[in-house]
Amino acid sequence: MADVAALAGVSSQTVSRVSMGLDNVRPETRRKVLTAMAELGYSANVAARALRYGSYGTLGVIAHRLARTGESRTVEAVVEAARAQGYTVTLVDVESPSSDEVTAAAARLSHQAIDGLVIIRAETATPDTLALPHRMPVVVSDSRFVGHHPAVGADQIDGARRATQHLLGLGHATVHHVAGPADSGPAQMRADAWRAALTEAGRDVPDVLRGDWTAGTGYEIGRELAADLDVTAVFCANDETAAGVLRALHEAGRRVPADVSVVGFDGIPLAEHLWPPLTTVVQDFSGIGRALVDLLLQQVRDGRALDDVHTLVPVELVVRASTGPAPGARRRDS
Amino acid sequence: MADVAALAGVSSQTVSRVSMGLDNVRPETRRKVLTAMAELGYSANVAARALRYGSYGTLGVIAHRLARTGESRTVEAVVEAARAQGYTVTLVDVESPSSDEVTAAAARLSHQAIDGLVIIRAETATPDTLALPHRMPVVVSDSRFVGHHPAVGADQIDGARRATQHLLGLGHATVHHVAGPADSGPAQMRADAWRAALTEAGRDVPDVLRGDWTAGTGYEIGRELAADLDVTAVFCANDETAAGVLRALHEAGRRVPADVSVVGFDGIPLAEHLWPPLTTVVQDFSGIGRALVDLLLQQVRDGRALDDVHTLVPVELVVRASTGPAPGARRRDS
DNA sequence: AGCACCGATGTTTACGTAAACATCAGCGGA
DNA sequence: TCCGCTGATGTTTACGTAAACATCGGTGCT
């Protein structure tokens, strides 16, 4: 900056004014400064600016297994929403969503230059075991943190309930559920809502089949389901798992939806192009991302924490060809 | 820091020494300082440290449509590799990979605190039109930038060639190609390699069908392909497109692979669980991510640019059930 | 003409840290 | 006993910027 000032024959403060885009600089002076800046390849030092100004223009994001669909779509939405507000995003990916790892990631991030922290999922972490940097604004996309940190989440319960009721409404006697991992909050909520919907309708509640969000275990569990001719309706905790189940059903010669109906969860772009196109509960990831950033920036700007805010983002059941009348119901029809 | 020093009854320099983990501090003094730090919830100011030290411990990443599979897997790999080297990652997502947007994103990032820049794809950008911050270390995952910036890329050409030859080897007279967007470098390379493989084998080269990486256009193009009974083999520029093509073939009643064989590209986790499981060219995304970070940090540490380095990461053709002998070949068999 | 005011620009200072240098106490050897 | 050395700690300074304040020349008014 001093070099630029010397070359342009002005003070460093004038260089600062030009670089900040203030308007109380004579056009001629501004031009001289800009020329000097270009010549020297000058650009402002961010660290110094942040030091002076007290803000970094950056939000930290802790994500868990970024390449998983829901994860990357939420992150993309957060990045997008942050950009709209003039912030960039620093990303840390954790192997497992345990308290230790999330705490370590938060510590790593707090050693970076961030103004606030978005925790995409803190599945096995609990409010008590999760240590966060002092006075760091935080939002969590996990509703178990209500009362501790502001939270944003899709309406898991409504989605799982509607998926289950959709299948019951098609005449299926009951609905089997391929769940997500036991240590996942959303997986738990979806399983609970499925169980509640069955109970409410007075139906048998089959054992939960425990998946891990991947298509691979969906396939393995699907092979067992395919072998059981009593199974006519399966609600999967996510679309990947549903893809695995579909494959297993095809391999076993069970027709979808004539013999078995399948519902997914998430609404990944590929869901529409699986065979048959998958009925699924679509989450509004970009709405979640926007809500997360809004809640976080509100705290950053006010300088104080919002404790008990909880934004519930609605979901939508999109019915496609993977669900149809129960074989029994159809038989009654004919 | 001054407060901590006062509370611990030492100088700020001693606090700094403790916080940097230097060992020339008496255990008793260290303990006092740590106690004071804990009491005041002190943590070092990153901007000041960066200002003093000249480095941020952060790499910038410019990605294009993060939620797309290949993208997010590469980003995850970069994040992972960066973490292994003690760096975090700041992410910017651009709508389109044009020079203007990438240049703007680089400018945004250079206003952030980064030590180097990873450009995941700069498809429509060219070395001439892409303006980057002065003296910023850069790597690009796009081989068209060889000679301008260090580049890392999967061996697109080998992958597309092997996919095409695999289909020809199964007895198909020719192979149709559903390409990626015309302004994408990798899409261009895959299409060129497919064309070359056909020409080399002395086969007819059908018109390129122009997709946009999505399953949606794959489906639309697939409906046309399904209507053309001469089509027996389709090589898709990525797995999503292939999923759309598979769906269109199913809807039209064309059997896969008995009537039509389909190959994808990327090796997304779902490829194995599409119906039928998709033969595809698997990219080593985490290898690409590691190579990108290695090349970048080499420049960051040496303080100088590596101009003409080009790392080619091998790909692997994984054969699954979506490809089989050409109908003609089968007929000859029987 | 003289004065008050305003806009453009320069000067000083503070942001929080860590390197470089300074100081100081204690200890061993002559 | 005194000197010099060593290790622990304190003091000064610089990193690059922008706010706050100071200055200076011109303009319009009386």
Give a written overview of the molecule:
The structure is a homodimer of 334-residue chains. In chain A, the strands form 3 sheets. A 6-stranded mixed beta sheet of chain A has the order 7-6-8-9-10-12, sandwiched between helices. Chain A is an alpha/beta fold and 334 residues long. In chain A, strand 8, helix 10 (239-251) and strand 9 (261-266) form a beta-alpha-beta unit. Chain A folds into 3 domains: 2-44, Orthogonal Bundle (434 Repressor (Amino-terminal Domain)); 55-154 and 285-312, Rossmann fold (3-Layer(aba) Sandwich), CATH 3.40.50; 156-283 and 318-333, Rossmann fold. Helices cover 44% and strands 16% of the residues of chain A. In chain A, helix 1 (2-8) packs across helix 3 (27-40) and helix 9 crosses helix 10. The radius of gyration of chain A is 26 Å and the shape is elongated. Chain A has helices at residues 2-8, 12-20, 27-40, 46-53, 69-84, 99-110, 156-169, 185-200, 215-227, 239-251, 285-302, 327-333, and strands at 58-64, 88-94, 116-119, 138-140, 151-154, 176-179, 209-210, 233-236, 261-266, 279-282, 310-313, 316-318. The model of chain A is unreliable at 330-334 (pLDDT under 50). Chains A and B meet through helix 4, helix 5, strand 2, helix 6 and helix 9 of A and helix 4, helix 5, strand 2, helix 6 and helix 9 of B. Chain A binds a DNA duplex (30 and 30 nucleotides) through residues 1-2, 10-14, 16-17, 19-20, 24-26, 29, 44-45, 47-54.
